[in-house]
Design goal:
The structure holds two protein chains of two kinds. By secondary structure, chain A is of the alpha/beta class. Chain A has helices at about 5-20, 30-40, 55-65, 85-90, 105-115, 125-135, 165-175, 225-240, 255-270, 290, 310-315, 330-340, 370-375, 385-395, 430-435, 470-480, 485-490, 490-500, 525-535; strands at about 20-25, 25, 45-50, 75-80, 95-100, 120-125, 140-150, 155, 180-185, 200-205, 245-250, 280, 300, 345, 350, 360, 410-415, 455, 460-465, 505. Chain B has helices at about 55-65, 85-100; strands at about 1-10, 10-15, 20, 30-35, 40-50, 70, 75-80. In chain B, α1 (about 55-65) runs parallel beside α2 (about 85-100). The chains are: A alpha/beta, B alpha/beta.
Amino acid sequence: MRDWNTEAKNREARVTRASPLANGKIVAASDATTLLEAVIECGDRVCLEGNNQKQADFLGKVLSGLDPARINNLHMVQSVLALPEHLDVFENGVAAKLDFSFSGPQGARLARLVGDGRIAIGAIHTYLELFSRYFVDLTPRVSLICAQAADRNGNLYTGPNTEDTPVIVEATAFKRGIVIAQVNEIVDTLPRVDIPSDWVDFVIQSPKPHYIEPLFTRDPAQISEIQVLMAMMAIKGIYAEYEVNRLNHGIGFDTAAIELLLPTYAEQLGLKGKICRHWALNPHPALIPAIEAGFVHSIHSFGSELGMEAYIRARPDIFFTGPDGSLRSNRALCQAAGHYACDLFIGSTLQIDLAGNSSTATLGRIAGFGGAPNMGADARGRRHASPTWLKAGREARAGRNLIPRGQKLVVQMVETYREHMQPAFVEKLDAWELAESAGMDLPPVMIYGEDVSHILTEEGIANLLLCRTDAEREQAIRGVAGYTPVGLARDKRMVENLRDRSVIRRPEDLGIDKRMATRDLLAARSVKDLVRASGGLYDPPKRFRNW
Amino acid sequence: METLNFTYSGGRSAVHSAALVGVVGSGNLEVLVEPYPQAGTCTVEIITAAVGFGDIWRAVIDDFFARHPLANVRISINDVGATPAVVSLRLDQAVETYLGDGR
């Protein structure tokens, strides 16, 4: 007779081994190593909460310092590899296999460890894909998570950076895994409960508060005039024309420039109340002037942003906040919102090829995908209509005998040359070479050309929805590729023809006066201006203060 | 450092007072436009920190001259690694300032 309850029995055995260490659910930080050795078994699938921002850094350090003679062959599943510990765990022989989504700052070291055979990568995912697999075939046996505070029963308050915690805990706790939380403090009464205590097995107060990265802060002082010009084109040539009201912005100075032009340029064009009302977006400080000007009606966030706490608390009509007043973010739900409920994604990239495929892969770095592929992809399962979605769908289908449907706007915004004269337009993406050198199944493409609706550069906007052949598409891309080799190799006559058909539009075609493209058009020209716009509520991290 | 020189003819003579735009800073450039009677030509001298981009400079300046066919004008560029986008924008600004100043 088969035993149908082996997982629960195994769980009980782990909890029993650890129980001498715990007072209720509370375990001392000095016992953290013993706790992990008691509950983790060799070969376990372990989720370490490495978010985009909030990091379970203490538990990560303890994990990477375990004795590999006792604990080894772990299979790490985690959304972001942000800290050195996240790779130390492999270098020290504790873990062997990795499924992840984004590796940002650790990308170069990850590539080396993969090259040396120290890490076997299962797959590189988008956030939503990885979270989904937590409920299918990558369910964690043990999860090491991170919260702001716990009460004595083990209820958790995540603080504004809830991020991935709910999805990790849901997948682990309801499949009889073990959940261990590191918290900054243990208190009698929590401001609110983000994770109920019966989903949590052990709580450790970490010796230091967890690390949070201010990833979404862009200093307006660094925005260039070219970025102002491109932002003007985005607002007049895309946002106004398609009545874009539900959107997500990628991270970077290009999109920060758009945010800072809403209260000035967009206001002058009479667009307030007509564009940019609802956002799936982290609380970008650069959006403060647009919020204050009344452009923004609502924002749901993947995570929070350091320094925005008091501002968010003072603008509850705009943000999703708990009864305690602080932000409640949720990466999985905001990714779903960005995919299904937004009409536009706009973001920067490193390389675009002649088919419009866009990649941030560079040789010698395995950077992963994060959320961009889900934000920057037409949602094939979408069924509800909006003016933006319908217009894009009409343009893509005009003259073709197809059943009507809508399409998402996916805009790639790049200066034709990046710093050090690296061309953003290439015949062949570096992703191909990276795929070969790292033994990947496919070249890592961030956004596939078939999903890209517009490419915006300082030279103009290419509307790929209106292209009818591969040759047209190639010339539309060459036609905005500036003085890169790809741009210089354009067929000038065909490009002029595309311009006549408004497939390509130059700033002058959009009625944009380039002389207006100065930093004076930015609603804030410095971090200090953002603080002022917030009425003193925004409290930027020290590194962004120069006064 | 590299010095590049281009000369164009067939433009319209435009004698105004000199105009200077831009700054000498990383990723930026300084453009000086000044009247210079030289048999109906327009000369462009570029001193650039980035070596080996002569073909791109030629394409950028060719397009610039197509937009603004000037004669009896000398343009001097002091470049610290500006992208072509910045170069084009600064050139347009410099010429607009130069012509707008009309005497």
